[in-house]
Each structure stands twice: as structure tokens, then as C-alpha cells.
Design a protein that fits this description.
Helix content: 40-55%
Radius of gyration: 20 Å
Shape: globular
Oligomer: single chain
Order of helices and strands: HEHHEHEHEEEHEHEEH
Structural class: alpha/beta
Number of helices: 8
Number of strands: 9
Strand content: 15-25%
Length: 216
């Protein structure tokens, strides 16, 4: 099935992993079928929204029965492209980079970090979670030799653009950026920014709102 992802579908795409987590729990419980209203109730969503989201995968539920859980899992995984393994490199083996290297769940999402790079002499040649840290000057040649298309960026803001340029020039087409710095790339390159400070600011605001409501 050809995946057609449009910008206006991105909110739905972001919800699909939530459905997948729930469906896998249901699988473990031996549940064979689940309805859109049931999914909506558990996740606090509207039933019509769930149906529209799941329709993106091409799967059709059965009247008065719902969706076959195993088939729906396969449909979501396929639509997200997680049934294919994509190789990636990580640049910046500090605290955050080390944490990402140690997360074993990426393989469930079709992502495999095959190598990591850093400019620090204290990290080069160290093995972290089974991956030997390579010197930064080997980044470009490694990407070219192994046809890597995904780069994960966890360097300092000062080094971010230079490393990005190296990755792009070597053939990287998508960058998962954890650095709070603006990056300039050609239109052909996709950037997904993950700003931890933004997430924390939203959490703090919600906490303050909840506290204010509780004090009324």
C-alpha cells in the first residue's frame, strides 16, 4: 500500500503511535476485536476522530464488531513505515546521546542506530551500549560508504550547523534534531525538531494551571 502523508494529516499521524500502544496491550490481553468508540474512550478522544485517523491506514472495520486488533496493528505499523528498518547515525555522544543509544525500543519503530560520532577525545573509541564512538572527522565518509539517510543530532548548539552541513553533504536526507538551535538545510532535507525546553515549558504551565484551579 502506498503511503500518502499530507501536512494536514500530521496530527492524525502523531496519534497513530498512541493507538498502536493500546492495541499491543489489547493483544497481550488476548482481545481479538476493538471498536473505534472503545479506543476513543480509553484514550480520551472522539470516536469520529479515531475512525478518521485509522482510515488513513486503509483498514476498514466490521459493522458491530470493529477492527481486528492484529490486522489493525499491522496496518498502522505499515503506514508509519515501521515495518522497514532504516539505519541512522548519531552525532554527539554526551548525556542525551548516550541515553538515545541505550534505548532499545527504536528497533520497534524501524530505526537502527549503526554508529555514533563525537569530537571529544575522551569519548572517541569508547563503547557505549554496544556502539563504538568514532571521531567526528569520520562522519562524512561513513555516511557515504554506508548510504545512511537518517542523522540524529545531539551536539552543542555551536556545533549543530557545521555537523548538519557535513551530514547533508554526505547524503543524509532526514535529521532528528535534539539541539535547541535553528538549522539551515536544502529543501530536500527533512528536519524533525525535538525541543525539550518547549515540552518542559508546557508541562510547567499545565502544572501551574492545575494548582491554581485546585486552590479555588
Amino acid at each position: 500500500m502506498t503511503r500518502r502523508i499530507k501536512l494536514h494529516n500530521l496530527p492524525s499521524i502523531r496519534r497513530l503511535p498512541r493507538y498502536l500502544h493500546l492495541l499491543k496491550r489489547l493483544q497481550q490481553q488476548g482481545v481479538a476485536y476493538v471498536s473505534a468508540p472503545k479506543i476513543a474512550d480509553v484514550l480520551g478522544l472522539a470516536g469520529i476522530q479515531v475512525r478518521k485517523d485509522l482510515a488513513l491506514t486503509g483498514i476498514v472495520g466490521k459493522p458491530r464488531v470493529g477492527y481486528e486488533v492484529s490486522a489493525l496493528v499491522e496496518a498502522i505499523v505499515s503506514h508509519l513505515g515501521w515495518d522497514q528498518t532504516r539505519q541512522a547515525v548519531l552525532v554527539g555522544a554526551g548525556s542525551l546521546g548516550t541515553a538515545l543509544l541505550g534505548y532499545g525500543g527504536f528497533t520497534n519503530f524501524g530505526l537502527r542506530i549503526v554508529s555514533a560520532f563525537d569530537a571529544s577525545p575522551t569519548l572517541i573509541n569508547r563503547e557505549i551500549h554496544g556502539i563504538t564512538i568514532r571521531p567526528a572527522h569520520e562522519l562524512g565518509p561513513f555516511i557515504e560508504k554506508n548510504a545512511i539517510r537518517i542523522g540524529i543530532l545531539t551536539v552543542s548548539p555551536a556545533a549543530a550547523q557545521s555537523v548538519t552541513d557535513t551530514m547533508v553533504n554526505a547524503g543524509i536526507r532526514a535529521i532528528w534534531n535534539f539541539v535547541p538551535a535553528p538549522l539551515t538545510v536544502p529543501e530536500r532535507v527533512i528536519i524533525q525538531n525535538e525541543d525539550l525546553a518547549c515540552g518542559l515549558s508546557v508541562l510547567s504551565l499545565k502544572l501551574d494551571i492545575a494548582r491554581t484551579e485546585a486552590e479555588k
